[in-house]
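Handout, page 2. Input:
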Amino acid sequence: MLLLLILLPFVGALIAAFMPAHARNREAWFAALIALSGLLLTFSQYPVISEGLSLRQEIRWFTAIDLNLVFRLDGLAWLFTALIQGICLLVVVYARYYMSPKDPVPRFFAFLLAFMGAMQGIVLSGNLIQLVMFWELTSLTSFLLIGYWHHRPDARRGARMAFTVTAFGGLCLFIGMLLLGHVAGSYDLDQVRQASTTIQAHPWYLAIVLLVAIGALSKSAQFPFHFWLPHAMAAPTPVSAFLHSATMVKAGIFLLMLLWPVLAGTPEWTWIIGTAGVCTMLVGAFLAIFQHDLKGLLAYSTISHLGLIVCLLGIGTPLAMVAAIFHTLNHAIFKASLFMAVGIIDHESGSRDMRALSGLRQVLPYTATLAIVASAAMAGVPLLNGFLSKEMFFAEALLVGSSSNWWMSAAAVLMGIFGVAYSLRFIQVFFGPVQTVKANPHEPPRWMRFPVEFLVLCCFVVGVLPELSIGPVLHGAAQSVLGQALPAYSLAIWHGVNLPLVMSVLAFVGGISFYFWLSRYCQLHQRDRVPLLHRLNGKAAYETTMLILAASAARLERQLSTRRLQPQLIWMILAGLAASIWLLSAWPTLSVSWPNDTLSLAFALLWLVGCSCAIAAAWQAKFHRLAALILVGGTGIATSVTFLWLSAPDLALTQLMVETVTTVLLLLGLRWLPARIAAKKLNLQASARDRLRRIRDLIIAISAGSALAVISYIILRQPDNATLSRFYLEKAIPEGGGSNVVNLLLVDYRSLDTLGEIAVLSIVALTVYALLRRFRPAIESIKIPPQQRNPLDPAYSQLPSEQAISGYLQIPGVYLRLLLPIILLVVAYFFLRGHNLPGGGFIAGLIFSVGLIIQYMLSGTAWVEARFKLQPHRWLSFGLVLAALTGAMAWYFDHPFLTTHTLHLDLPLLGKLHLPSAMFFDLGIFAVVVGTTMLILIAIAHQTVRSHRIPGIKTETDTAEERR
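Output:
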């Protein structure tokens, strides 16, 4: 059930991305259905959560290092999950009417659902590393959402800034989580929360707190990382209402709450978290007063309220935790409604600039009423939800201070004064004479206003009936964090005349007076910069830092790098050589012994041929590419025979097929490279410096090659340690279901490595394909090769496809086409035997690729593609999905990912049949290998097809037609 809560939005995002481009209704209702389904699933778990219990689902991944997929749902996670899904549902309904028909709506809802899934992953994660992965995923999806209108420079800048800051915080958080899990002895969150004494007594405690704080504070836009949030307001208003009220900026708050039982209660925690919270709530509130953009004002007010919550968490008392959870919920409700109200104002009046707006109450009466009530909740007016949690904050500020330590209480009152002032600044656009940018503004459609109405109603209901409406949920969330330390608290509206009430009155009176004083004497509505804090420019500091980093990187690149490949290779070879020599010198048990047995003359001749081919290939590589390629192939064949000589038939067969495929692909690629011009033809002579450079390169090459040969020999001559090989040989049949240990290593024991390798192979194939699709050969390479210009050549007057059908290649064409089914039988043979004998999906895929390459070379691109629908992209997709699904099926049997199972069948005619699940994984490898080879082959072959379209260039096809 918990896994379904996370998978549902991701699957929905994938489906939404492929929906029609401009069908807003369909995408909106689909996204709303996904959010509503998740919300109903969450509510269905409330009976268990209300009993003070928690749900846990664990999927084994790396059991040896205690790294599993763990999902947990307690009271706090339930509250945040319901908040994320509920706000998302309302935002989707709102976005249906807000987004323009010209906007690519499928992309918007796909990003929105993916972000919701990432947030739910954070909230439901029960493993520290897993939580960080979802944490970074929120940074990525928020980058896509903030930069959704990528045609706007401010959206691109805001997205980059938000991603840079939050990704930096995520990196620090990752390091902190690694340290935290190491100190606790486990990355399981439940076990970490039980090791608070051990963690706080450890010397790494301060480093852990600092790293976790950087991650949380950067995500929640806390000082000094607060500057990214106002610039993220370039995103569409539905994004701001979702990310910057209830979800992304609350991720850091959730993390601090989650780790509060582990890290809180020390002076280090209080000073780091509390100081950041106090600075943020004051700086954010003061900056909000002087904003002219409605969304900018809400952004800074969000920063301030988040600082209030962080301050409560820094105080560290149990009642402060209750107040922090309560205000987190209240802030999400009234701030989401305010963001959507601003979107309506912008949508209908044509502007968010408060200097260009006034009197909106007359043209937007319903929206104005809703926005004023939500602003009052933000200011902490009685009978609204914001008043209750702010009263609790005032009470905790008094408790943490004393008669001689009153600065916390003063900061709380000052923040309240600023909050009232910017709330009044916000609602001033609804009064006065009517002034708008767009003519004839009017109320939005009914369902566009509904989310605002619902949230404002929640503000009122929670403010009037707090115990009945939110009491049980708040109690469950607080109990999941505090446990037995949960204090007695009251959500009553009236607590009598006390100091928190006096502080509230002072905040209201002071805020109203301060606003009118600023309006009258400081020209508040005309000021272009913030007094006192205008030099505190986070954006400028960020851009200066990025410029310094870019300039430093460029300077370092100029000093250590070059556009020429040769110097880079020299430094790499020298560094590798030095590292190898150092490792060998530091090896404590190194011993060198010469073999006593007689060296085989045939084996020595084999290596002599291989080395000669390698040296000759290097000698011929510059001006004789074809000869060099043939010689390299000779070296590969010598290597294959060496593997076979040393009783490694799997490696020998794989090396032979790889050598065959790569040689043919390189040969086809050489067709499109221009010919090298010898230096003699250009009357060029090598200088003395050139000769010295060549001698230097020769010495380095010989030294590196000799050293590598010596190192390899030394390592191979070390005393055998058969423990690992004995383990694989003993476990191959009972656990792997096969006797071919080499194949079992690929598809079972190290199948995760193989899965990563075929994923990388697919990425490389797609990259090569994309590059070759944009490659345009030189003009002289497009023309007919000189070998085909001889009239005596039978191919002189024939098209490539005709040469294999009725020309001089007719006989080879017939038997090679008949050979293709036989090749398929060989492919099936090697594939099916791979679990017990040399073979497998990789070798079978290469053999199948060779069969298709032969058809391309024989009959030409047009003939093959007219008869075979290869679609290599689908081969790649099928292979990767099949391999991943094969691994995931192990979870169905409650085993770690990619665990192999063997099904034993007793069939009537076939007898006993052993069907391992690794066979399907091997089939995925086969598909990826075929798809990769075909993708590169098609990209090279299409150069011939594409060259026909270049005017003025005679190609093989054009010339053959003219010669008839």
